[in-house]
Amino acid sequence: MNSRTDSSLSMPPVIVLVRPQLGENIGKAARAMLNFGLTQLRLVAPRDGWPNPAAGPAAAGADMVLERAAVFNSVAEAVADCNHVHATTVRKRGISKPVLDPVGAAMRIHQDKGRHAILFGPERSGLETDDVALARTIITIPINPQFGSLNLAQAVILLVYEWSKTQHLAQPTLTQELPPAPQEELDGLIAQLEAMLEPAGYFSPYSREVATRRTLHTVLTRPGWNHLEVRTMRGVLTTLARQRRNDESRS
Amino acid sequence: MNSRTDSSLSMPPVIVLVRPQLGENIGKAARAMLNFGLTQLRLVAPRDGWPNPAAGPAAAGADMVLERAAVFNSVAEAVADCNHVHATTVRKRGISKPVLDPVGAAMRIHQDKGRHAILFGPERSGLETDDVALARTIITIPINPQFGSLNLAQAVILLVYEWSKTQHLAQPTLTQELPPAPQEELDGLIAQLEAMLEPAGYFSPYSREVATRRTLHTVLTRPGWNHLEVRTMRGVLTTLARQRRNDESRS
């Protein structure tokens, strides 16, 4: 994957299907994408492997999207080169993140420089809390509260349709702001901090470890730090860690 | 059929599937309708008769819409009680009628009193010219000109989604976010970190100290962390500092 971030606005978003169950839905999602001019599809651990013979017929001619689809083992790998990660959910989550509706999400993708990824969860259950923790924002489609069962390809088409609308808007004035660092740089920062916190007992008791790590991810994902800011924070951590080693060597 | 027109605005539109071919698409259209609170489905001469055993499973719980579906022999009969008839088409027609996009159509349905019907044609061919001739307006979804094959249920969901937005016009924006912490809490966090970095030599050489502190302030101000997030970060720092003291006391 090329992790260079484009300097122009309105890079088309990447659609990431996380653990999709049915090949038919993958094909329909590809068709929906191409209906509005999107071609970058990524699959995380598709249940029935890949390629899937049910996808092609459902794509109804959008084979080009399926042929280019990239497959990953984890969400983290799938979004490593993305500057902005958005998670689609229907239900409310115990995570405090900014929530956008499809219009707000489309405007954000239109305005914020860099590569955006939109995560969609498996048909039956939606995204897991850990997947959502990786994202900076949550996208929720305002839907009939008495009937919230939205088909995967239908969710995809609503978001790409809203995105396509922004392509006809005049471009906003260029801000000089750098885009957020690619997700893999942020992951490196978080890993460095976790490695320092672990021996200090930050993650004990064991029963709360998962929740504690998730909270830390959320707090550090929120800033949208750019490449230079991530480097600054890594410098801070390196300084603190080096001092510990100095202390130890003096002891 | 009750042909009385309601005097209030925003009567929910009637969805009319004209000669639909696949039961599965009828079920998916019903599901899409109920997703956004619509329940009035009408079928004109469905190819495989009605009821269709493939519709139920595809409706994924929207059975109520299928059970209430009314079947007609002709488009004229299906829209006899409707005050406004809109025909969805992808291709341009040789008929001169007002053309609306989904947003324009939703506004029209929201504003023009009476019952609105939206006609959708068969999967393979779309509406025939005679069907379109019955309509007062044409609705066209602006789509990739290189890939205009839009699934029937996808076309339905885009229009009912746009309609649903007009129902929420008065609703506030979706955000459950906590506000950023008061500045003094952020300052407390920054002071704690600076106090840890100082003895570690982070701010030397002296000539660059002001710039280095400024950078750190900028990086930590950017997130807009809320009260809970600031507390989390202070906990992280306290853990790292405590470990240092433990190291020192062991020495």
UniProtKB/TrEMBL annotation, chains A, B:
Coiled-coil ranges per UniProt: none
Stored Pfam families: SpoU_methylase
Stretches assigned to the tRNA/rRNA methyltransferase SpoU type domain: 14-161
GO molecular function: methyltransferase activity
PANTHER family: TRNA/RRNA METHYLTRANSFERASE (PTHR42786), TRNA_RRNA METHYLTRANSFERASE SPOU TYPE DOMAIN-CONTAINING PROTEIN (PTHR42786:SF7)
Family, per entry: Belongs to the class IV-like SAM-binding methyltransferase superfamily. RNA methyltransferase TrmH family.
Record-given protein name: RNA methyltransferase
Source organism of this protein record: Croceicoccus esteveae
